[in-house]
Amino acid sequence: MDPYKKLISNTALFGISTFGARFLTFLLTPFYTRVLTSAEYGVTDLLLQTGNLIIPIASVGIANAVIRYGLERSSDKSGVFTTGVLVTLTGYLLLLSVSPLLERISFLSSHLWLVLLYVLAANIHSVCNQFARTMGHVRLFALDGILRTVLTILFNILLLAVFPMGVTGSVLANVFSDGITTAFVFCRARQWRYLRLSAVSRRDTVRMLRYSAPLVPTNLCGWIINISDRYLIALLVGNAATGIYAVSNKIPTVLLTIANIFTSAWQLSALAEQPRAEKERFFSNVYATYSAVAFVVASGVILTAQVSTRLLAAPTYYEAWRYVPVLTLATAFACLGSFFSSVYMVEQRSAATLTTTMLGAAANLVGNFFLIQLWGAMGAAISTLLSYLLIFAVRAIHTRSMLRISWDIPKTLISALLLGLQCLLIEGDAPLWPLWSGLCFLAVAAIGRRPLWSAVKKVI
User: Which of 153, 185, 213 marks a domain boundary?
Assistant: First the structure.
């Protein structure tokens, strides 16, 4: 199949699954903010994000190696899958052995068992889910996304509204949905056929771990950029402020959801075998469209920040809109930086992904330390923006030595400046700011009209 058609087809399939699922979760934000106090919401968010921090450490990020090497035609799929499962279970046993140390962390002391269950369910689900993609079960992968979200919503309603279990119910909802969907994918794809200890080889295990291990500190650095600010806000400002800031992060997920949909399909296309010149042209054309979509959607989210916050959160959380514009701009650059990291994936340069992410994490920690003390939660949002901007710039320059992706620097700068102007207009409550912000949105759309129209024609 033509690579563009294949990419569009897979993106559409993942879009039906992911966007519909995320949209349902998005609409439930008012429910969560009404059944949980801002302090409870903040604690729940910290527990889940702590679990997300532990997940790649406990599994050594092996799911990344499962998708990377499972897609190779020459790979032994039984060896890849069995290695992934064994590494995940071994890592979890090691996690249990150090759990007494984790109990000493104040906010984890009474909820550690929840976090441990969350980590196990998420890691097993990730390995089975990613392996399903390598087997060619793209539709099953998409269905898994829908089923998991529907179950998460149903369990949240059951454990928060019917049986008001608060923080415990919210975390268990994720554990139950991961467990059920893992069983569904495992049985539907008949993955037990690929569980064979005899297929595990030392050479392939070392190769997989060598690829996935550097991605563990990469995820840690990503966690620092995304989540460390919430810990500092909780420490310096309070749990209520953390809950409000967590809600503000929900709004930019519209952009992040679109990026994740594309990334799921892009991984399958980026690893396809092509002559170098053709691959460079393919990457350049796809990036032009991807960046145009990222900037246009980000501009739209900034324009509607106040309205979306009022619709999607309880009145006590309305203040969250103030952080949405800056966080949305940060998310746009995170998406662009993520695209360039796909070059590292193709070239098996996971250490480069680690190095560039470490730069962003270091900048974020320094920025958080100083800016939160000066401007509170807004300082955290600005620090996040600067760190993602740094990662994008370094990767865009560094990857040119591996794969020359052509991109229009002046258009990127102008689009970014227009989004920055939108942030200043809404934050400063400038006279007629909706009008000027709307004009900025139209200007961003006009800048990206050619790649967007090209993509539309390919879809048609």
Answer: 213
User: Are 430 and 451 in contact, with CB atoms under 8 Å apart?
Assistant: no
- Give me the mean pLDDT over the 82-97 stretch: 90
Please give the C-alpha separations between residue 420 and each of 100, 330, 341, 415, 444, in angstroms, as whole numbers.
46, 10, 24, 9, 12
Comparing C-alpha atoms, which of 426, 407, 432 is closest to residue 294?
Answer: 407
381 and 325, same structural domain?
yes
Mark out the alpha helices in 321-376 (DSSP H runs): 324-346, 350-375
Asked if the structure places residue 30 within a domain, the reply is: no
pLDDT tens digits along 157-189: 888 777 877 778 888 888 999 999 999 999 998
Which structural domain, as residue segments, surrounds residue 209?
A: 36-213
In a shared domain, residues 300 and 445: yes
260 is written with which tokens?
């994740």
Residue range 322-349: mean pLDDT, rounded: 87
pLDDT of residue 165: 76
Residue 35 to residue 74: CA distance in whole angstroms: 51
Q: Which residue has the tokens 């295990």?
A: 205
One-letter amino acid for residue 339 of the chain:
F
Instruction: Take residue 375 and report the two structure tokens written for it.
Output: 């401007």
Question: From CA 151, how far away is CA 173, in angstroms rounded?
Answer: 8
Residue where a domain terminates, one of 213, 243, 274: 213
Q: Look up residue 207 and give its two tokens.
A: 């190769």
Structure pTM?
0.71
Tell me: the pLDDT tens digits for 276-301?
778 788 888 888 888 888 899 999 99
Give the pair of three-digit tokens for residue 308.
């979306």
- Residue linked to tokens 């454990």: 159
What CA–CA distances, in Å, run from 348 to 84, 394, 453, 454? 18, 18, 33, 31
Terminal C-alpha separation, the chain: 16
Residue 190 token pair: 């008949």
Residue 378 sits in the same domain as residue 295: yes
CA 135 to chain centre: 23
Contact status, residue 263 vs residue 420, Cβ threshold 8 Å:
no
| Total domain count, the chain | 2
Half-sphere exposure (Cβ direction) of 425: Cα atoms closer than 13 Å: 23
The DSSP letter of residue 294 is H
- Same structural domain, 294 and 201: no
pLDDT, tens digit, 9 for 90 and up, residues 396-414: 999 888 888 888 888 999 9
State the Cα–Cα distance between residues 66 and 215, nearest whole angstrom.
13
